[in-house]
Amino acid sequence: MVVSGIRSRLVALAAACALAVPLGGAALAQQEGGTLTVALPAQPETFNPVLLGELSSSIVYNALFAPLVAQDPETFDLDPYLATEWEPNEAVDAWTFHLHPDATWHDGTPVTADDVVFTFERILDPEENSPGLADVGHIDRVVADDERTVTFHLSEVDGMFPDRLSLGGLQPLPKHLLEDYDSLSDAVEFNTERPVGNGPFMMQVAETGSHVELVRYDDFFLGRPYLDRVIFSIVPDMNVRVARLRAGDISWTDIEPTHARSLENDPNVQVIPVSSSRYAILDFAFEGPYAHLFEDPRVRIAMAHAVDHQTILEGVGLGRGWLMNDRTIPAVLSWIPDPDFEPHAYDMERAQELLAEAGWTRGDDGILVNDEGERFEFYILVDRGNVQREQIGLILQESFEDLGMDVEFVAGERTGRWIEETRDRVFPVRMAEFPIPNVDWFRRIYTTEGPNARGYSNPELDALVEQAIRTGDREEQGELYKRAQELHHADPSVIPFFLREQLVAARADVRDLPEGELKLTTPYLHLVWLDR
Fold it and tell me: Which whole number is the average pLDDT over 377-395?
């Protein structure tokens, strides 16, 4: 794992601001100014962090709004941000956070504990339909102890509460601008055109389907950003993103391993391996019209045996990554012991045996049928434009056809069919990708109340995760998450592929870019500068 330099950079920046001298001395004149252009995969659905949004939304609003607690994109440790420090009570069922004394909204109004109280009361209101409710629904009440101190009183023990606040979608909102709306969704201009945040950059203009332009907030409480502006350019196709990076009209984008070799030979581009806990998965449906095909775990395990993971790693990932071996928590979270199971290795003969045990045998045309004569036919839904997931999906189509399944490959727009079928839980199987930078994401993705997108429910697994949350003993938590993975291995809701070496690429003049994925990095854009 990359050793973090972000916290030390923040300390140095704060010291430089306090002394009114440039960070790095005379070099500041070269560091200030310029525009960083960041590629976005899709049109942001909202700029309000507590409303339902997608990846592109979070990439942008993480630069607009300050979280109470941030997650270091290089080490996945917790960093102070809007909250300078926090502590639990003795029972670990209440947490107190102390706000930065210099934090202000982009209109100059001070950020106070009342803003935090207002925001979380809205999140806790089911009528607001905030996705954050699933993470903090156990808050009993939020109390402003004074102007800069706020305490969350919980209905249950939660030793991971600060971790939950660090993963986005729970950033405080300005009470003075939103309190008169019956619902946050009614604040249309704020949500889609003119959000007023408290982060390092503030909204300048949002052009639907084209770009979002932010300008620096000079009074940002962690220090004035170096960049004049950040432009998020909407470029759904990754090949186009790479071409525009080469041409110089994009400064920074995520890339796939297929692009790395050519870009590494470009003197105007830097390829940066970043800390990652992200891996691609094949999701099975447990609700909707296709769910009955996959309800028997033997079918899902058979399909897992039909996948040659090493070939996928070498052919799609170009060897840049590590096999998950059926783990659903990456080994980067090293405090969790290795689960005790044998991976579902590539074994087509075993796969056929399991399908036969589950009642599926080949018909006259070679397609699997059950006792009722139903054919085993479905489609794999892939988000169009993600080269790696498209390639994996095509390999899986061929592998499952070899098993005797009738499989169609469907590439849907991420903001269109892919997200619509995901939200409605009507897809048969889909390609997706998740980060597990924090063990709480295991709860989000794999437990009944996660909410997971596939409708999966295993009460035994739920109970283990709940037990882990309620204990403050890290060793006990590790053992419980180990056992939870073992349960999931016997009743899999996904096929995990490999933990990929995640890559970003930037123009050679971009400096002090945190070595992390875009979503986690944008809160730290005030540290980035251009060597012009």
Answer: 93
* C-beta separation of 158 from 138 below 8 A: yes
User: Could you tell me which residues are beta bridge partners of residue 153?
Assistant: 94, 141
Strands 83-88 and 149-154: unpaired
Q: Can you give the pLDDT at residue 437?
A: 65
Name the strand (E) or helix (H) holding 264: helix 257-264
Which helix (H) or strand (E) is 179 found in, with range?
Answer: none
Measured CA to CA in angstroms, residue 199 lies from 102, 214, 222, 282, 525 at distances of 12, 11, 9, 36, 10
**CA 189 centroid distance within chain:** 26
User: What is the enclosing helix (H) or strand (E) of 113?
Assistant: helix 113-123
Residue 123: count of CB within 10 angstroms of its CB: 24
Q: At 274, list the tokens.
A: 């970043």
Q: DSSP for 212-258?
A: EEEEE-TT-TT---S-SEEEEEE---HHHHHHHHHHTS--EEEE-HH
Confidence of residue 3 (pLDDT cuts 50, 70, 90): very low
278: helix, strand or coil: strand
Q: Is residue 429 within 8 Å of 307, Cβ to Cβ? A: no
pLDDT digits (tens, 9 = 90+) for 60-73: 999 999 999 998 88
Return the number of other C-beta atoms located less than 10 Å from residue 364's C-beta: 6
Distance between CA atoms of 133 and 461, rounded to whole angstroms? 21
**Do the Cβ atoms of 258 and 372 come closer than 8 Å?**
no
d(CA 427, CA 409): 12
Helix then strand count (H, E) for the chain reads 19, 23
Contact 222, 203 (CB under 8 A): no
Neighbouring CB atoms inside 10 A of 380's CB total 23
Helix (H) or strand (E) holding 502, with range, is strand 502-507
Express the helix, strand and coil content of the chain in percent, nearest 5 each. Answer: 35, 25, 40
Q: Is the peptide bond before 451 cis (omega within 30 degrees of 0)?
A: yes
Please name which of 485, 495, 243 lies closest in space to residue 392, comparing C-alpha atoms.
495
Q: Identify whether the C-beta of residue 69 lies closer than 8 Å to the C-beta of residue 165.
A: yes
- State the CB neighbour count (10 A cutoff) for residue 179: 12
DSSP state at residue 415: I
Q: Cα(417)–Cα(414) distance, rounded to whole angstroms?
A: 7
Q: With helix as H, strand as E and coil as C, how does 376-403 read? A: CEEEEEEECCCHHHHHHHHHHHHHHHHC
> What pLDDT, in 10s, does the model give residues 506-517?
999 999 999 888
Round to whole Å and give the CA distance between 438 and 329. 9
